Inverse folding.
């Protein structure tokens, strides 16, 4: 299997294999389910299950698993073997019922209090729109996860529902404007994944990385990312070997891994796939993250997906490229040659602009996490203020529409390279604005505020639902219009006028933008607790309930789960710091000071003429810092104990962690890092930033 086309999808029960292995009628029925969202029949499922099993066994499988995405933030699986007793022996069987429905014990998955432990039953149901695949001798079946009483307990179900909703609303609107040829619209996503690779041996010596995914102590290395020499730099042999194997594993699983390069920070890299339908892109991104970790292990590396593993250099994010594609194959967010007369495009653009303006809080909420708090609002890409970048071209179009004047397109300009052997080429009409959290990039929007470890289902179901809502409002307004053209024009003009404040084409990092955004009434939600204060706002709950994405109780459950996770993560970080401080750092500094003291005393004993000022200064400095360090450690301990006695509501509790616990952690770290710079490397208990960041 040396050839990529043969390798690609070889571990996936994809369309081609279904065609080969299923009777025509079964294949057709399954296709109908996948394409038109029709429910599946048990007799069809039986045939599909059997064919899947035979195929999986040929690939060496003994087990199958319903693979799902509970609210934990990682995927879950429980493996069952195919064996069925038969006389003295066994046969390998897999029924349609087993394919359609699984029943993992759900009691330990977070439910946000919507379900008591005695009602722990949970069901997984096959998602036939995402193909099954084989990994490590097991047949993986992508599924959705709900409770016995039907409550949604996962991230996949809301995503699937939101895809239905946006399709229905988009089709309705398109029909109103005469596009009756379109019968289904899908959302497409291409997530660009950033990650760090570090040496496993170094990693194993860092308690903080092992327990929390990020370094809680660590003085800056003499070199960081200031030379920009890592970005797009040539890829080191060991990393290249990892990337090669990763690509191959992903291709076998049908993941369209396309682009790989070094990122800004030392040891940081990126992988981007070619986009696919949202739910498949979600499954594939989850798979990509899992496989990255596994393959790193084989190369003596560790893949860090935390949003901020290292202070002082960039953290990792994930760009969520999002668009709408009709069953006719056309991209609904493509402006075409003449966006000024393309009313269909204008309508969809207006819907996204209005959605992002009205639900900026939800977009901020959906990317909020303890890890991402280190990036958003902390002077790192992008800022916590949600705004949109349309580029000069579309920006001018929106202005022209608002002012009711003619729009003149600058057209595509030719870039002359000035070297005869190099071809001249046409320039994109919109340049990139890398500082914008939500940028139009030619025929899609790029939502850039996601953290690297986030399950992309969440931002995507939020995005789909809020845009579905705007499309439904547009349809309501346009229904029964006598002159559709002028009604659409009037609507688009009004929407752009009312929502132009969300559009910002300038530098999002500039201080002036913070002020300007405030004047425009845009939100600046710097941390998770700030953002979550808006989670349960009536307009947000109403949105999800109205579109049947989840009930108010389920929505609240999500709020509770995320907030609890945030507090637990900060709690673990604080406890880890205390552990490191007491068991390793304080003893290490003490030992070094003793060594210095012994040296100074020995020198003095030898001869009073030998200078001991260096030792004495260091002893003085480190001893003073150590006093402060131990005091801060106790302060942190007390703050954590106080947290366990906290009885306030979730939001207050989260704020306490952010404002009190986290603040002390920062202070403790500052003293610790300062001691690291004065302590001999032999004595310091942890690998340094130089070793971690430049060790591969
Ligand atoms: P960059 O952000 O570096 O400019 P690209 O423009 O190459 O990267 O694309 C980034 C991602 O956007 C890729 O994963 C690509 O497949 C995806 N993408 C391209 N077109 C669409 C689309 N219509 N819908 C969703 N994602 C898309
Ligand atoms: Mg990008």
């Amino acid at each position: 299997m040396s050839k990529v086309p043969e390798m690609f999808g070889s571990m996936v029960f994809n369309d081609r294999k279904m065609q080969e292995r299923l009777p025509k009628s079964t294949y057709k029925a399954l296709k109908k389910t996948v394409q038109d969202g029709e429910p599946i029949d048990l007799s069809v499922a039986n045939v599909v299950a059997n064919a899947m099993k035979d195929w999986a066994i040929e690939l060496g499988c003994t087990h199958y698993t319903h693979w799902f995405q509970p609210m934990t933030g990682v995927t879950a699986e429980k493996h069952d073997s195919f064996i069925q007793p038969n006389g003295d022996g066994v046969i390998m069987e897999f029924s349609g019922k087993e394919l359609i429905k699984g029943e993992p014990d759900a009691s330990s998955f977070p439910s946000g209090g919507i379900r008591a432990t005695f009602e722990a039953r949970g069901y997984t149901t096959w998602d036939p729109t995402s193909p099954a695949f084989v990994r490590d001798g097991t047949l993986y079946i992508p599924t959705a996860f709900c409770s016995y009483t039907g409550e949604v307990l996962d991230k996949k179900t809301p995503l699937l529902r939101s895809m239905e909703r946006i399709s229905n609303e988009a089709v309705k609107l398109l029909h109103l404007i005469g596009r009756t040829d379109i019968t289904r619209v899908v959302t497409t996503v291409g997530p660009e994944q950033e990650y760090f690779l570090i040496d496993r041996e170094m990693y194993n010596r860092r308690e903080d990385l092992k327990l929390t995914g990020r370094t809680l102590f660590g003085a800056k290395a003499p070199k960081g990312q200031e030379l920009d020499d890592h970005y797009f730099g040539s890829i080191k042999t060991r990393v290249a070997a990892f990337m090669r194997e990763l690509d191959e594993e992903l291709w076998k699983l049908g993941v369209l891994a396309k682009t790989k390069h070094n990122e800004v920070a030392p040891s940081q890299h990126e992988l981007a796939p070619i986009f696919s339908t949202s739910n498949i892109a979600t499954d594939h991104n989850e798979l990509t993250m899992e496989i990255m970790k596994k393959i790193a292990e084989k190369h003596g590396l560790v893949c860090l997906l935390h949003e901020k593993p290292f202070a002082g250099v960039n953290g990792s994010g994930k760009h969520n490229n999002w668009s709408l594609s009709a069953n006719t194959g056309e991209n609904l967010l493509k402006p075409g040659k003449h966006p000024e007369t393309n009313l269909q495009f204008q309508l969809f653009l207006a819907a996204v602009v209005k959605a992002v303006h009205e639900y900026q809080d939800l977009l901020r909420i959906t990317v909020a996490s303890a890890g991402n708090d280190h990036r958003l609002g902390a002077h790192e890409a992008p800022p916590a203020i949600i705004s949109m970048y349309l580029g000069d071209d579309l920006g001018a179009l929106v202005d022209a529409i608002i002012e009711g004047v003619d729009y003149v397109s600058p057209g595509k300009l030719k870039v002359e390279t000035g070297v005869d052997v190099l071809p001249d080429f046409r320039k994109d009409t919109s340049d990139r604005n890398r500082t914008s959290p939500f940028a139009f990039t030619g025929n899609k929007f790029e939502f850039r505020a996601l953290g690297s470890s986030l399950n992309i289902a969440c931002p995507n179901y939020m995005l789909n639902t809020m845009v579905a809502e705007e499309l439904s409002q547009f349809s309501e307004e346009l229904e029964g219009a006598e002159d559709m053209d002028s009604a659409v024009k009037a609507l688009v003009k009004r929407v752009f006028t009312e929502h132009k404040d969300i559009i910002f084409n300038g530098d999002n990092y500039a201080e002036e933008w913070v002020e300007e955004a405030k004047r425009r009434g845009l939100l600046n939600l710097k941390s998770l607790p700030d953002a979550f204060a808006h989670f349960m706002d009536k307009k947000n709950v109403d949105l999800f309930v109205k579109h049947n994405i989840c009930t108010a109780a389920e929505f609240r459950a999500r709020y509770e789960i995320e907030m609890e996770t945030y507090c637990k993560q900060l709690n673990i970080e604080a406890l880890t710091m205390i552990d490191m401080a007491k068991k390793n750092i304080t003893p290490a500094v003490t030992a070094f000071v003793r060594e210095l003291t012994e040296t100074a005393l020995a020198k003095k004993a030898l001869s009073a003429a030998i200078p001991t000022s260096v030792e004495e200064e260091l002893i003085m400095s480190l001893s003073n810092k150590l006093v402060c360090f131990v005091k801060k450690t106790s302060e942190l301990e007390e703050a954590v104990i106080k947290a366990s006695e906290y009885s306030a509501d979730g939001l207050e509790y989260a704020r306490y962690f952010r404002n009190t616990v986290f603040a002390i952690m920062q202070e403790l770290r500052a003293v610790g890092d300062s001691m690291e710079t004065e302590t001999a490397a032999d004595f310091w208990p942890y690998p340094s930033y130089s070793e971690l960041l430049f060790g591969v």
